[in-house]
TrEMBL record:
Domain CBS, chain residue ranges per copy: 139-201, 202-258
Protein name: Magnesium transporter MgtE
Function: Acts as a magnesium transporter.
Gene3D superfamilies according to UniProt: CBS-domain, MgtE N-terminal domain-like, SLC41 divalent cation transporters, integral membrane domain
Keywords on record: CBS domain, Cell membrane, Magnesium, Membrane, Metal-binding, Transmembrane, Transmembrane helix, Transport
Family: Belongs to the SLC41A transporter family.
GO cellular component, one term: plasma membrane
SMART domains the record matches: CBS (SM00116), MgtE_N (SM00924)
InterPro entries: CBS_dom, CBS_dom_sf, Mg_transptr_MgtE_intracell_dom, MgtE_N_sf, MgtE_transporter, SLC41_membr_dom, SLC41_membr_dom_sf
Localization annotation: Cell membrane; Membrane
Subunit details: Homodimer.
Listed GO MF terms: magnesium ion transmembrane transporter activity; metal ion binding
Coiled-coil region list: none
Organism of provenance: Corynebacterium marinum DSM 44953
């Protein structure tokens, strides 16, 4: 058993830890690598996590709190007590503060904001001023103001003075006196240049984004550029903040986690599984289950409509799981592929016809392969007529499901919905119902029922 596992077992009775045992646990926590302490907190309930944070030194407790997801931080607010919360909140970066505030009730968020000093409240307000989902909401406004008419020596002197108060000093935006972004320069270039050289001679053309741009889209095109940070400007081209590589990674990870959860028919938990309250786990799943249960009634209605057909050829019922499963899987494959392509920018909403035509051909090829196998196997066991029904249905179901699965995420994107919401759960239900209709219509035609 590792030291962290032993600590976790002790903390299961955290409310009853005596003072002398608390000192022992605190000493062990101080010797534990910080990444293991973060893991311990993530696996603990809010009460136990609060105990861990109180037992840590101030420096380590702030570092651990900062490493947690915003939803997890919000759960800890009540358990920690006002003094600790105010201290942790003040130490967060402005963009991380805003993420936490978004998870809190308005009354608590307002109280926390009022505890900040004037300058920290002002820069946090800059980030809060941008819409949710925009890159301005995820940037850091703590960026040094370096002007194009400064020399290298002047720039380095200023960086030394402000280094502790800004987000990064490795990628540096250069601005004009009216704060318009004109270039970028790296610390390496400044460090190796002559002190008397002008910054304007060394700076490069900037790669930048507008503060109102969509956060996920911006982060996805920024990451492949392999640069450490990128300036963010307002609608007039004035510098308002900076997006760092690690913040962009967080944005993409959050988006991917959300897409994965919704593709699996539940809402994202937004914090580690074991530390998520039980009722929140239930809430993340129940709405989707109700929606899918209601939509599954379509399949029941189809079966009821073709009850006489089933009674006349009972063997048809044996193939229902095969056909519905194949249709659902085919649609899900197409939807997942296109959803991912939309997220990466490989596919745009205006490409809907190209995607539809491509998936029609993919579905036909898949259907031809599976249909041929189904025709052969079913004919050997149940006769040629049943083989033709199964083979034809597999061909049409694959073609239809692939097309629908490819198009629906694009339609969702076009109407402003989350493509993942329109993916696997709904496509499976749609494929079940329509696939059964196709199946029974072919059976009635071929078998003369």
């Amino acid at each position: 058993m590792t030291d962290v596992d032993a600590l976790e077992r002790i903390l299961r009775s955290a409310e009853d830890i005596p003072p002398e045992r608390a000192a022992e646990i605190a000493a062990r926590l101080e010797k534990t690598p910080i990444q293991e302490v973060v893991r311990l907190v993530e696996r603990s309930t809010a009460t136990r996590a609060a105990v861990v944070l109180r037992l840590l030194s101030r420096r380590r407790s702030i570092a651990v709190f900062d490493a947690l997801d915003a939803a997890h931080q919000a759960d800890l607010i009540d358990a920690l007590g006002d003094r600790a919360v105010y201290e942790f909140f003040a130490e967060l970066d402005p963009d991380d503060r805003v993420s936490l505030l978004d998870e809190l009730p308005a009354e608590i968020a307002g109280r926390l904001l009022r505890t900040l000093d004037g300058s920290e409240r002002e820069i946090t307000g800059v980030v809060l001023g941008y819409p949710k989902g925009s890159i301005g909401r995820r940037m850091s406004p703590e960026v040094p103001h370096l002007y194009e008419d400064m020399s290298v020596d002047e720039t380095m002197d200023k960086l030394r003075r402000v280094a502790d108060d800004v987000e990064t000093i490795y990628t540096l935006p250069i601005i004009s006196r009216d704060r318009t972004l004109v270039g970028v320069i790296s610390l390496r270039e400044l460090f190796t240049a002559e002190g008397s050289a002008g910054v304007a001679e060394l700076m490069a053309e900037p790669v930048f984004a507008s503060a109102h741009d969509e956060a996920e889209e911006t982060a996805r095109w920024f990451l492949p550029l392999d640069i450490l940070a990128m300036p963010i400007v307002d609608d007039s081209g004035r510098l308002v903040g900076i997006l760092t590589f690690d913040d962009a990674v967080d944005i993409v990870e959050d988006a991917d986690s959300e897409d994965t959860a919704r593709s699996g028919a539940h809402e994202p938990l937004q914090q580690p599984y074991l530390s998520t309250p039980l009722l929140r786990v239930v809430r993340s799943r129940i709405v989707w289950l109700l929606v899918l249960a209601v939509s599954a009634l379509l399949t029941v209605q189809v079966l009821d409509t073709f009850e006489d057909t089933l009674a006349a050829a009972v063997v048809l019922s044996l193939f229902i799981p095969l056909l519905t499963g194949t249709g659902g899987n085919t649609g899900n494959q197409a939807a997942t592929t296109v959803t991912r392509a939309l997220a990466l920018g490989d596919v745009r909403p205006r490409d809907v016809l190209s995607v539809a035509w491509r998936e029609v051909r993919v579905g036909m090829l898949l259907g031809a392969l599976l249909g041929t196998i189904g025709l052969g196997l079913a004919s050997l066991v149940y006769g040629l007529d049943i083989g033709i029904v199964i083979g034809s249905t597999l061909f049409l179901v694959c073609t239809m499901s692939a097309t629908v699965g490819g198009v629906m995420p694009i339609i969702a994107k076009k109407v402003g919905a989350d493509p993942a919401v329109f993916s696997n759960p709904f496509i499976s239900t749609l494929s079940d119902a329509t696939g059964l209709i196709v199946y029974f219509l072919i059976a009635k035609t071929v078998l003369g029922l």
